[in-house]
Amino acid sequence: MATPSAVVLLSGGMDSATAAAVALDQGFEVCALSFRYGQRHAAELDAAKRVAERLGLRRHVVLDIDLRAFGGSALTGDLEVPKDTPLERIGATIPATYVPARNTIFLSFALGWAESLGASDIFIGANALDYSGYPDCRPEYIEAFVRMANLATRAGVEGGGLRIHTPLISLSKAEIIRLGNRLGVEYALTWSCYDPTPEGTACGRCEACILRRKGFREAGVEDPTRYQTGVSA
């Protein structure tokens, strides 16, 4: 039997890299999909390329969709990236780094590619436990998208249906890191920071960096990330 294909959303971050490794471990041929969407920096796309090469993925597509035309986010506009947010406040509100409808946009492209490939499976590294309050990372959102996908596609209406896998949805960052380590993910290749320094190091102070640092600390694993001077792992 032919190896089944799965489309995996690969941002270059630790969660998406782990999700890709899970898909490979489950026997899928991974077709990675990344986006150049007008984000503040190219570091995450460089990381996605490194991860795809390290995992030996044969197909990695980077699509251009410029969400700067809409703005409304610190990642695609002129809003300031939040820094030094206390851990207990992360996730309490939707932060300025939320990009309007981003996961819906990304999953829609993934859905189109999966259907054209004849693939029934999509993987996304969404995480609802250690996360920054993004509404499109919740299980109920993913469930709703699956219902829509199977109503709106030929694969859903005439075929066997489409599945969206969220293997990290209920894991803490520490648990994700431990899982990735078991699967051979090289986290030194990944990127999380929303606001890197001009020297190309992670700021260590944005919410993504704070959660990353917390994850490695709680996992008891050395954080391979280079942070700006004065910020310790």
Describe the protein in words.
This protein has one domain (about 5-185): Rossmann fold. It is built from seven helices and five strands, in the order βαβαβαβααβαα. It starts with a strand and ends in a 14-residue tail after the last helix. It is of the alpha/beta class and about 230 residues long. α1 crosses α6 and α6 crosses α7. The protein has a five-stranded parallel beta sheet with strand order 3-2-1-4-5, with helices on both faces.
Which overall shape is indicated by the principal axes computed on the Cα atoms?
Answer: globular
Average pLDDT, rounded to a whole number, is: 94
Structural class, from helix and strand content?
alpha/beta
- What is the number of helical segments per DSSP (H or I, 4+ residues)? 7
What is the tally of beta strands? 5
Strand arrangement across the biggest beta sheet: 3-2-1-4-5
CATH topology tier name: Rossmann fold
Number of domains: 1
- C-alpha termini separation: 46 Å
Q: How much strand content do the residues show?
A: 5-15%
**CATH level-1 class:** Alpha Beta
Second CATH tier, the architecture: 3-Layer(aba) Sandwich
Under CATH, the homologous superfamily reads HUPs
Radius of gyration: 17 Å
Q: In sequence order, what are the helices and strands, one letter per element?
A: EHEHEHEHHEHH
Q: Can you tell me the residue ranges where pLDDT is under 50 for at least 5 consecutive residues? A: none
Largest sheet: 5 strands, parallel
Roughly what percent helix? 25-40%
